[in-house]
Amino acid sequence: MKILHVDTSITGPASVSRKLSAEIVEAALRRHPDAELTVRDLAAQQIDHLSSAHLAAAQGTAPENAQVREDIAAGRSALEEFLAADLIILGAPMYNFGIPSQLKAWIDRLAVPGATFRYTESGPEGLVGNKKLIIASSRGGFYGPGSPAEALDHQESYLRAIFGFFGITDVTVVRAEGVAISEQARATAIDSARGEIAAIAS
């Protein structure tokens, strides 16, 4: 088994999503001690957002800028890691009702026609449905199903949509909500998420 662990939070040791994703990885490695683990920290090693230079390169124009060449290679490496993985463990906090821009930049490198999806006469078809995705989700407030702010969730809803577009339907969300309300709410949310991790591990 190959496990890809991706973190995206910019808050370092204070990050709830990092804490939870690390614990999910530990649980996965206990179940699969021989697994091959690849770690990608998108806050520490950012992939650039797509630009006209990237588009030109995709259309066959060799980039003259060395930084663009290096970034295209980094994007290709990210895609190869993703394609090779059986299990993706993704730390994804909610920023301003959506996902971190670093995470969006990474996803943009995965959305490659012929690699993760294709268009057919009957509509788009995902090409990587043989993977499992576990999302460690953290949110300052409450945006879950049935909450008054549910319509503002463009974090988990987007992640389910884009990875579903790639064909991944085996998606589990380990969620810690309300972590910015108070220290007690934060602790309660983390404890609840840890219960979900324990259930997954069993």
TrEMBL record:
GO molecular function, one term: oxidoreductase activity, acting on NAD(P)H, quinone or similar compound as acceptor
Required co-factors: FMN
A Pfam family that the UniProt record links to this protein: Flavodoxin_2
The entry's keywords: Flavoprotein, FMN, NAD, Oxidoreductase
All copies of domain Flavodoxin-like fold, residue ranges: 1-199
Amino-acid positions noted as binding FMN in the UniProt annotation, renumbered to this chain: 9, 15-17, 94-97, 138-141
EC number: 1.6.5.-, 1.7.1.17
Subunit structure: Homodimer.
Function: Quinone reductase that provides resistance to thiol-specific stress caused by electrophilic quinones. Also exhibits azoreductase activity. Catalyzes the reductive cleavage of the azo bond in aromatic azo compounds to the corresponding amines.
UniProt record similarity statement: Belongs to the azoreductase type 1 family.
Protein's UniProt name: FMN dependent NADH:quinone oxidoreductase
Organism: Phyllobacterium phragmitis
Source taxonomy: Bacteria, Pseudomonadati, Pseudomonadota, Alphaproteobacteria, Hyphomicrobiales
